[in-house]
Amino acid sequence: MNLSDLLALLDTWYPPAWAEDWDRVGLVVGDPEYFVHRVHLTVDCVPETIAEAIDAGAQLIVAHHPLLLRGVSSVAATTFKGRIVRDLIRAGVALHVVHTNGDVANPGVSDSLADRLGLTNLRPLVPATGAAAGGGRGIGRIGELAEDMTLAEFAEHANSVLPTTSWGVRAGGDPDRIVRTVAVSGGAGDSYLMAATTAGVDAFLTSDLRHHPASEHLAAGGPALLDAAHWATERPWLDDLARRMRDEAGVDTVVSDAVTDPWNV
């Protein structure tokens, strides 16, 4: 399949108009006339995952996190991102980013996270507005566990089903608190603490929770909190996207298992 045709299909699943205004999604490196038969999927486009893509014989990397989120004045090989651009061009590998347009999609990043945890009857934590409104789209998901768990049990469960990282899953709240209704949001989620409280869930699992917002949230009687590695909450989506690309686009897919979470000790 020509890259241009494959990207047109991806844009029907995850329209760029659904991305946040500050986001940078779409084709970053590559010629639309490239021929693609194998796609490498990763959360982060870094030297390790580029090497994986080249070794796998991929012509396209689909990454969740943008390589060039903020403006740059140079992509010289003397810079980290410049070397990445150089290596991609040298290898003839294109790079395409699906970020917040994948977060709000239905199914999207948080659906995959919720599925890993065994949640059902999903609905958005923060329903989408604007171009993405409707269709069950939005940031995060709220769902139900099949049976009650204590917070301590649910933290153990989350740690067992999410991709393994050095720091696993940590939780805040009464260890004996009963958890049945859960909100999740892949990636950084402390801006959705109030949404989780308003929704009346028992627990909220996300990433990158900061000290003061988390402690104030718990002190105010909000839902229990579970904080997992950012990478681990977004990695499950790659499996679902890979399966969809194989089934609907007919391309071969390879999913990276390189742990790109920066906290490794």
Automatic annotation (TrEMBL):
Binding site for a divalent metal cation 2: 64
GO CC annotation: cytoplasm
UniProt cross-references to Gene3D superfamilies, sorted A to Z: NIF3 (NGG1p interacting factor 3)-like (3.40.1390.30)
Keyword Hydrolase: no
Keyword Coiled coil: no
Residues noted as binding a divalent metal cation 1 in the record, renumbered to the chain: 65, 103, 230, 234
Keywords for this protein: Metal-binding
Pfam families xref list: DUF34_NIF3
GO molecular function: metal ion binding
Subunit and partners: Homohexamer.
Entry similarity comment: Belongs to the GTP cyclohydrolase I type 2/NIF3 family.
Entry-linked NCBIfam families: YbgI_SA1388 (TIGR00486)
Protein name: GTP cyclohydrolase 1 type 2 homolog
